[in-house]
Task: structure prediction
Amino acid sequence: MMAHLPILPVLIPLCAAVALLLATGASIAFKRALSLLAIAALVAAAVAQLVMADDGGIRVYRLGDWPAPYGIVLMLDRLAALMVALTSLLAVPVLLAAMSGTDTRGRHFHAFLQFQLMGLNGAFLTGDLFNLFVFFEILLLASYGLLVHGGGLRRARAGIAYVVLNLSGSALFLIALGLLYGFLGTLNMVDFGVALQKVAPADQGVVAVMCVLLVSVFLLKAAVLPIGFWLPSVYSAATLPVAALFVIMTKVGVYALLRVVTIGLLAAPFTAGLLQPWLTWLALGTIAVGSAGMLAAGSLSVVIANIVIVSGGTLLLAVAEPSAASISAALYYLVQTTVVTGALFVFADHLSRQRGEAADGFGDGPRLASYTNLGLAYLVLAVAACGAPPLSGFLGKIMMMQAMQPSLHPVLVWTALVLSGFVAALVLARAASVFFWEPGAPGIEERPDVPYRPAWGATAAIVIMLIAVLTVSFAAAPVSAYARAAAEQMLARDAYVSAVIGDPARIDRELRP
Amino acid sequence: MEVLVSLSLGLLSACGIYLMLRPTTFSVVLGLTLLSYAVNALIFFGARLKSTAPPLTIDGLSGQTDPLPQALVLTAIVIGFGMTAYLMALALKGKAESGTDHVDAGRDP
Result:
């Protein structure tokens, strides 16, 4: 059983999704129970992986028992375990929030959710580049379904743009993979690094171009400056619990980039400096554009979407200059920003139901029913999101600043991090005054109260997210110690080579004309 | 042969990208289809152009071609086909709701 642990986070959602498709006609209560049960099992498997990976070993699961690099392998290390655990834990509040109403607007919500989790976990666990493409497609196809869930012209239009963009991204991904395979003769991630070291000087130019093409696909998923404008319209068009799950989707891009850089590009001298210095500039630009987007936003969900963009830019600052310090800071930042922005989306869902037609827009709305509790929850989330002490956002930014001290442009990086935090604080404070203070204030038109009784799922979702935010804040030491260990493991490439392919000299390589 | 193949791949991609930049969803779908043809052919040719080279090992026969790109291209075709079908469904839904096939329909002026 323990030997098969690496594949469980893929198998559990797959089985649940197939069962949910077969049970299309069943009652919503049955589907919810099945979905919840599957996610509970997934969380158990993910936590078991997290504990298992913490001994520092790299577990290789050969699918079909074909040895790497010829067959496809799953690779469980600290980074993969961390990402799978984060995804599975985020799925719990997402499901609970969706159960309080939005999941009845379409028949296949729960099946799509499970397929999405399968794709995400597979992308985090796979050790093969083409398999990564396949899992990307699975998670994208499920996300297309989740995005248009709920119907409406706005979602359909946002969906078309999102699908076209991602299909173009897939085409680029395939071009890069096809040509890399043509030159290197391998698709295994670890072997990719080994093969890069053996590229003839005459071919190095073409291979470098292909690597940049591969990187740009991941940058599209991570919503970086020139190719990131899709994110706010997509995230704000989706129903809010779905948007909370989509938060992890940009992190898939960052993860894939981190993986390919540490295991592949850093291995060979001609690709090691490939991301410098342009990625730093793009990341800084992403932070600037995201901050401007926050200021221009007309609703809370667009603000949160722009916070997601800014956090993606912040993470890429570290990826552009990979070192043990910068990667470990980035991993802590990734965990905390995913939890906080996911929590904000869940909160926005709760809030917009209480405001009736005003939803989460910054217009006049009715007085909120659970005024004090919501206000306190918002205070915690906003403090964490804008990076003010004492919560996780502050710790994440401090770690990033310390790690980026030896970078190319430390002053610029620090300024970007501090200013984006100020902008977030300003916008979130303005939102608080609109939501909590203005209804009922003198000079503001009274709106009729919206009759609303929160379902237990919605309340439970917010409580779980708040506990998660506080845990990431107050258990920062163990989380960042894990992140540090993960970063050091990722940079020790020889351990991956011996775990996945053994002795690289023994691999029969075909000579290409 | 190599030059002919490269030129036709380039032509396919160019037509695909031109159509993708058109303002109606239908041409975008056609463009994506052309682009995916070009990409599939590219993956296939990643195994180099060889004639009468089988993708399997047969006793006494040398000079096989690499079988993996053929497996990859099958996967890519299936996925691309599914995605295109979904995009068509989504485009039809958008057209039914807004009455036009223009990509900017339904957007605030």
In short: The longest helix of chain A spans residues 153-184.
